[in-house]
Design brief:
The chain has 427 residues and is mainly α. It has one domain: Glycosyltransferase. It is built from 16 helices and 8 strands. The strands form 4 sheets. It has a two-stranded antiparallel ribbon with strand order 1-2. β7 (397-398) and β8 form a beta hairpin. The longest helix has 25 residues, at 123-147. The protein binds alpha-D-glucopyranose (GLC). Alpha-D-glucopyranose binds at residues 28, 33, 37, 39-40, 165, 167.
């Protein structure tokens, strides 16, 4: 264990959040990500709530101000012009009044808003703002089940790896091979100008990311068509667990606010999702696996996407196995939780979501483990996260073998999670 000065770390984290604050939304980091990102903002709001409650609500409200008429909440809102990011608004071509991307991201808003509401010091304000967000989050959840689960399986599919929030995970490799690269318009990547190319997705992956964007743009971003027209349809257990948790949390919130119908609908979504998740369990790996919806087969890839389901109310024996899996990984990696199992030859310690540890996933996993009483493992994750901060600062992600900081620096959601962890340590 290393010496931490929690008050200094707290102040430093607040500083990072303030310096990335654009007024009504926060950019993930300067340079690499100059706009508003969906799940970054929802998790960032939790951090902001520790020093500016009003501002925390605004972060999520701004995101929902850009919700699509069909209910989707886009993964990026391009509030201001910047040529520092590719693919920018013209490549997406979504035709929204304020430009947005055309895909979504892990729906963590229901969870975040419930947390904001519960911890609110200003109860009246929280009630008013939660009430206004409630139907919007519900519309997003409804959108998921009608457009991403068209055959009513109980689980939703992602149609682009970026939707998962785990952009270049090993999980997508096989299904991604079905995505062609012909006809991709010439482009210049900007991410590799801000971060080490060896830590970023490869050129071939990038071509496929862009092919999918062009394909969906060619269908005018009509969500009634995209699912069946996509060669990439993957059921990600981590993504679904976040949605399930958000549905359950939104149901609780709706109940406290006297919205019985919304509560019942979200409760039913969570229950159907939990029942369907069982089919993704792998006893061999001691975690859940993704499913390729095009072939119907499970994807043999032990990524953090299959550990994240502990964030939802999965069966207790599965949660306990996941705790053991994290412990096993802790014997192989100095810092947990790696985004891919270090025992798998496809693990890459520094490449984005193919091995590095991220504080946001740590936060959700620790929260879930705590809920089922696995406090020792949860504490270990929190400790590991704070050690990374002391050793390497507020990086985007970290090499789990050495703790080396990778990707962008002074990263917003990393700082937000630190504030949450420090609060957890106190409670
Ligand atoms: C990367 C991450 C994604 C995140 C975004 C902004 O694309 O994979 O999860 O939302 O950066 O931080």
């Amino acid at each position: 264990m290393i010496a931490l000065d929690p008050s200094k770390i707290f102040d430093h984290a607040v500083e990072v959040l303030k310096e990335n604050d654009q007024g009504g939304y926060t950019i993930p980091t300067k340079g690499l990500y100059p706009f508003q990102w969906n799940w970054d903002s929802c998790l960032t709001a939790l951090g902001q709530s520790h020093f500016d409650e009003q501002r925390a609500w605004t972060e999520i409200e701004t995101l929902f101000d850009h919700q699509w008429p069909d209910g989707m909440v886009p993964h990026i809102v391009f509030h201001v012009y910047s040529d520092g990011y590719f693919p920018g608004p013209n490549v997406w071509g979504t035709g929204r009044p304020v430009a947005t991307s055309g895909i979504t991201q892990p729906p963590v808003a229901g969870f975040a808003v419930r947390r904001l509401y519960e911890r609110a010091r200003d109860r009246q304000m929280a009630e008013k703002r939660a009430k206004a967000l409630l139907p919007k989050i519900d519309a997003w959840h409804r959108w998921f089940y009608s457009h991403r689960d068209p055959r009513g399986e109980g689980l939703v599919a992602i149609l682009h790896p970026w939707e998962s929030g785990r952009d270049n995970s090993v999980d997508w490799d096989q299904a991604f091979e079905r995505v062609p690269t012909d006809g991709v318009e010439p482009y210049t990547r900007r991410d590799t100008q801000h971060a080490d190319p060896a830590h970023r997705p490869t050129k071939e992956q990038y071509d496929r990311y862009i092919w999918l964007v062009q394909h969906f743009r060619g269908l005018n971003w009509d969500n009634a068509k995209l699912h069946d027209a996509s060669p990439f349809q993957v059921v990600d257990p981590g993504f679904n667990a976040i949605l399930i948790r958000s549905c359950a949390d939104l149901a609780d919130l709706a109940e406290s606010l006297g919205e019985a119908r919304l509560a019942a609908e979200n409760r039913a979504r969570a229950e159907a999702g939990l029942a369907a998740m069982n089919a993704l369990w792998s006893g061999t790996h001691g975690q859940y696996l993704c499913k390729d919806r095009v072939t119907g087969a499970l994807i043999d890839s032990a990524s953090i996407g299959g550990i994240l389901p502990v964030f939802a109310a999965v069966p207790e024996d599965h949660a306990r196995s996941i705790a053991l899996t994290v412990e096993r990984q802790a014997a192989a990696a100095k810092f947990i939780v790696p985004s891919h199992d270090p025992a798998d030859p496809r693990f890459e310690a520094k490449r984005y979501w193919r091995g590095p540890a991220w504080l946001v996933t740590n936060y959700m996993i620790a929260d879930g483990l705590r809920r089922v009483g696995e406090t020792a493992v949860a504490d270990r994750i929190v400790q590991s996260s704070l050690e990374l901060i002391s050793q390497s600062g507020f990086a985007e992600y970290y090499d789990p073998l050495t703790g080396e900081p990778c990707g962008g620096h002074r990263f917003t959601w990393t700082a937000a999670m630190v504030l949450e962890f420090l609060r957890l340590m106190k409670s």
